Amino acid sequence: MTKKILMIVAPERFRDEEFFEPRAVFESKGYQVTVSSTRLGKAAGALGGEVNVDVLIDEVCANDYDAVVISGGGGSKVFLWENPKLHALLNEAFEAGKVVSAICIAPVVLAKAGLLKGKAASVFPAEDAIAEMKKAGAELKEQAVVQDGKIITGNGPECAAAFGEAIIAAVSEI
User: Which of 49, 75, 89, 161 allows an S-S link to 45, with CB 3.0 to 4.6 Å?
Assistant: First the structure.
């Protein structure tokens, strides 16, 4: 059975490498990737990349996927950090035993969803992101990719491919 990955991007200013590199890893393993955001159409990366959005976050069912992957970039702070529908989706996925993951400043979404209390995690070293992670009770690690159970976080574009590989490894155990 084909594994299915839901990749969530901000509609604007997602970090290109943090979307395209993990997606390439997933697709190279034969995984089916669905792209979700807060609006349909083309989502625009900070470096000029574009991706078609398949489905709205509001319309996604966590049980349809093996993993939820949130790309970082400046747009994630604006469109995803405070998104209650996304928080609910992440909690639904986590409670169903799915892999939940985020990279760069997007791990703050996991923190705000209440998933990182007492969990080891990584985040891009931006002051606001670090403050939000600490406020949520995350145990910050100075590692590029951190896995705590079925939660995987990465700290920036340099680790995008390794982040994707860690997700593949975790999904293969489901």
Answer: 49
pLDDT of residue 1: 80
Low-confidence ranges of the chain (pLDDT < 50): none
Instruction: List the catalytic residues.
Output: 104
Instruction: Supply the pLDDT for residue 21.
Output: 98
Q: Which domain holds residue 119?
A: 4-172
How many Å apart are CA 64 and CA 158, to the nearest integer?
30
CA 133 to each of CA 55, 96, 139, 169: distance values in angstroms, whole numbers, following the listed order: 28, 23, 8, 25
pTM of the model: 0.97
Give me the DSSP letters along 84-99. Answer: HHHHHHHHHHHHTT-E
Counted domains in the chain: 1
CATH number at residue 35: 3.40.50.880
C-alpha span between 110 and 98 (Å, rounded): 14
149: helix, strand or coil = coil
